[in-house]
Design a protein that fits this description.
This protein has six helices and four strands; from the N terminus they run ααβββαβααα. The protein has one domain: 2-Layer Sandwich (Nucleotidyltransferase, domain 5), CATH 3.30.420.100. Helix 3 packs parallel to helix 4.
Length: about 160
Amino acid sequence: MKTLRRRRKEAKTDYKARFNLLKSRKARFVVRKTNTALIAQIVTSETAQDKVILTINSKNLLTKGWPAERKGSLKSLSAAYLTGFLIGKKTKSFIKEAILDSGMHKNIHGSRIYSLVKGAKDAGLNIPVDEKVLPKIERIMSNKNISKSIIEKIKEKL
């Protein structure tokens, strides 16, 4: 009988996928969702230890011009795109390529995770993903709560 590791039982780690990511020896673009925000990290691995180089939370958008009355929509496609754009701009000087690590989240085409990836790719970070899984820019900009002009203004600030 095979014993399951504790983190696998808790549905936190897929060890086979993690091992394949570590074998590539590239920086990882880690994306996580919480109940209120999205988190993006650039992580490198050194001898069985992960080193977080940069962390950006979608709550950082509040300081960049995101309307305070819309802070409940920090998990939307628009917020995910802008968060990815922000981390892409900040890492452009020292990381050129990263691979996507979505953890135990399901791969749903056009989802918030892929919206975050699209933002990072548009900012200049090279992440190898199929273009078919990324959401269209029209869908990202068509947020009911946030107007297109606010999104463009925040994007220019970054």
